[in-house]
């Protein structure tokens, strides 16, 4: 892992009226790192993530993502990152080819580049037979793998994955993580949220948000030592239980 | 017998959603349908709750036929669909009153059944259901499914997208309901929840692959699984897949689960191989089989 910081967050805060959803969080993410961003439902993960990808303004504090300030340079942030979520991935009513072309265009790729990307993805994901099929007709696992590739079309430095594997079968879930490993190995930083605690073990470092604040941040191994438990699931349960 | 399903099939146009599915759930049992999205779990729920007709086969709930006696079934079962389907514009209290009234009862009459769940959402009883957090919505939906004191409870993926703490609490609630004599059919894509059921059916692509108790499913699995770890996980997966006698290689938490095709597999040979590939801090040890291992090998 590289020591170059690709995300720097300082006292990042978001308030909605009287309610503080994110309470002055501070952390760094390094280049090529797989960074797990965990927390209970309602802990403030989504709010924090929205600020980092430049679609929600912080109330106070600072965040720099891929060299750009999320408040004053949010458009540049959006261009430098990839994003994939379980809820929104691709357009079901477009074919695979049309989706790739569409997202390539959105990310400002030239026709030639888009053509190259299509050829490359067809080969890597073995899409020869289905390239002209509607995305809606694909099994969920394929969709997820494809939308991960689409999020990487413009070769972003960081990709944000919001619960990328929800509901996916166990084998596809693992194939998906092998894609993540390969991408991180190539130097792309991975910022990922998940409810599967075994997946938390695959991350280089993990942060756990409780009630708007980051309550723990370290490698899975060190977190397990710190809380004297055998699994990340138990770390999570212990942290969230102690708060109540 | 609380639920009996015999050779049920259902297709939507060209898609075979479930294919010749049979299983039985005993009275008071906590029975799990375990499988990923698209396996056909929801179709089974919709047929058993009389919202959908099967193309073939028979099914009975509480000895009532799903076709002929659908009204009797609707009165005696509770159903919590996978999609949140309460009235978003009604408050917590209004939703609960509404469902109680529909079934000709009152909140008070069956309060003891929902009490320990309802007290957790009671502080928000004047809030509209649409404005609740995910965990709260789930608790409200469970209360609404219970308010007429059903004998059988159908829960379609109640914990999907829910964090580990809330999942654990939810399963504790289910155990308490089971102790009150309610038969529960629950589906989940989370394999770790399988072990909390009395019996489970592993289901994929519309077919039931196995039905048994979680402990039997694990003890009947005949392959030896090894936990393997080294400093470089990415390289380790790659190198294990290139090891000539490998059977399967899958990431499992902090370890890789490795199965060899060779009956006389010697871990030392693999250790040597990995050292040659420049792996450091290598660990190879027998692993605990999980439901997920079995599922992946079906």
Describe it.
The complex is a heterodimer of chains A (244) and B (298). Helices cover 38% and strands 27% of the residues of chain A. Chain A has 244 residues and is of the alpha/beta class. Chain A has one domain: 3-Layer(aba) Sandwich (Rossmann fold), CATH 3.40.50.300. A six-stranded mixed sheet of chain A has the order 6-7-8-3-9-10. A four-stranded antiparallel sheet of chain A has the order 2-1-4-5, with helices on one face. In chain A, a hairpin with a 2-residue loop joins strand 4 and strand 5. By secondary structure, chain B is α/β, with parallel strands linked by helices. Chain B contains ten helices and 14 strands. Chain B has helices at residues 41-48, 70-76, 92-102, 111-121, 134-146, 164-179, 214-219, 233-241, 267-276, 291-296; strands spanning 3-12, 15-25, 30-34, 56-61, 64-65, 77-80, 152-155, 183-188, 199-204, 207-212, 226-229, 246-252, 255-260, 283-286. The radius of gyration of chain B is 23 Å and the shape is elongated. The two termini of chain B are 28 Å apart. Classes of the chains: A alpha/beta (244), B alpha/beta (298). Chain B: Pfam families: ABC_tran. Chain B: Keywords: ATP-binding, Nucleotide-binding. Chain B: Residues 3-230 form the ABC transporter domain.
Question: What's the number of structural domains of chain A?
Answer: 1
Largest sheet of chain B: 6 strands, mixed
Q: Helical proportion of chain A?
A: 25-40%
Class derived from helix and strand content of chain B:
alpha/beta
CATH class of chain A: Alpha Beta
Poorly predicted sequence stretches spanning 5 or more consecutive residues of chain A: none
Series of secondary-structure elements of chain B, N-terminal to C-terminal:
EEEHEEHEHHHEHEEEHEHEEHEH
* Strand ordering within the main sheet of chain B: 6-7-8-3-9-10
Q: How many β-strand runs of chain A?
A: 10
If you average the pLDDT of chain B, what whole number results? 93
Keywords (chain B): ATP-binding, Nucleotide-binding
GO molecular function (chain B): ATP binding
Domain ABC transporter (chain B): 3-230
Protein name (chain B): ABC transporter ATP-binding protein
């Amino acid at each position: 892992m590289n020591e170059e910081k690709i995300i720097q967050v300082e006292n990042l805060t978001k308030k909605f009226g009287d309610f503080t959803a994110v309470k002055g969080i501070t952390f760094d993410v390094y280049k090529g790192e797989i960074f797990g961003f965990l927390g209970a439902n309602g802990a403030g993960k989504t709010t924090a993530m929205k600020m980092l990808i430049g679609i929600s303004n912080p109330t106070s504090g600072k965040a720099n993502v891929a060299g750009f300030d999320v408040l004053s340079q949010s458009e540049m942030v959006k261009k430098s990152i990839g994003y994939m979520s379980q809820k929104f991935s691709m357009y079901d009513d477009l074919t695979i080819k049309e989706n790739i072309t569409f997202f390539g265009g959105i990310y400002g790729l030239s026709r030639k580049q888009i053509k190259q990307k299509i050829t490359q993805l067809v080969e890597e994901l073995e899409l020869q037979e289905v390239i002209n099929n509607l995305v809606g007709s694909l099994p969920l696992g394929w969709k997820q793998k494809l939308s991960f590739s689409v999020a990487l079309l413009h070769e972003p430095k960081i990709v944000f994955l919001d619960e990328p594997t929800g509901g996916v079968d166990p084998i596809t879930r693992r194939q998906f993580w092998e894609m993540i490993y390969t991408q991180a190995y190539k130097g792309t930083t991975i910022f990922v949220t998940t409810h599967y605690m075994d997946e938390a073990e695959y991350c280089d470092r993990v942060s756990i948000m409780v009630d708007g604040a980051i309550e723990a941040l370290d490698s899975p191994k060190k977190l397990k030592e710190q809380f004297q438990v055998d699994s990340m699931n138990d770390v999570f349960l212990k942290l969230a239980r102690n708060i109540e | 017998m609380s639920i009996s399903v015999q050779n049920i099939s259902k297709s939507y146009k060209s898609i075979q959603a479930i294919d010749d599915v049979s299983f039985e759930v005993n009275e008071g049992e906590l029975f799990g349908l375990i499988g990923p999205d698209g396996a056909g779990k929801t179709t089974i729920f919709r047929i058993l709750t009389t919202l959908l007709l099967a193309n073939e086969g028979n099914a009975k709930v509480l000895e009532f036929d799903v076709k002929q006696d659908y009204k009797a079934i609707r009165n005696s079962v509770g159903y919590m669909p996978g999609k949140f389907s309460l009235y978003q514009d009604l408050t917590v209290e209004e939703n609960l009153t509404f469902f109680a009234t529909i079934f000709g009862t009152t909140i008070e009459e069956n309060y003891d059944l929902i009490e320990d769940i309802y007290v957790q959402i009671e502080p928000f009883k004047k809030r509209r259901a649409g404005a609740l957090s995910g965990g709260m919505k789930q608790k409200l939906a469970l209360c609404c499914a219970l308010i007429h004191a059903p004998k059988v409870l159908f829960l379609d993926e109640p914990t999907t997208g829910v964090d580990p703490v809330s999942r654990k609490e939810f399963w504790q609630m289910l155990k308490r309901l089971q102790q009150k004599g309610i038969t529960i059919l629950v589906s989940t894509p989370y394999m770790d929840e399988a072990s909390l059921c009395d019996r489970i059916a592993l289901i994929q692509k519309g077919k039931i692959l196995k039905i048994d108790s979680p402990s039997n499913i694990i003890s009947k699995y005949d392959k030896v699984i090894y936990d393997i770890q080294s400093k470089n996980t990415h390289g380790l997966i790659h190198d294990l897949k290139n090891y000539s006698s490998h059977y399967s290689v899958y990431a499992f938490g902090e370890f890789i689960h490795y199965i060899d095709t060779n009956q006389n597999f010697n871990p030392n040979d693999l250790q040597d191989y990995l050292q040659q590939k420049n792996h450091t801090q290598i660990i190879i040890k027998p692993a605990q089989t999980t439901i997920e291992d079995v599922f992946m090998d079906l």
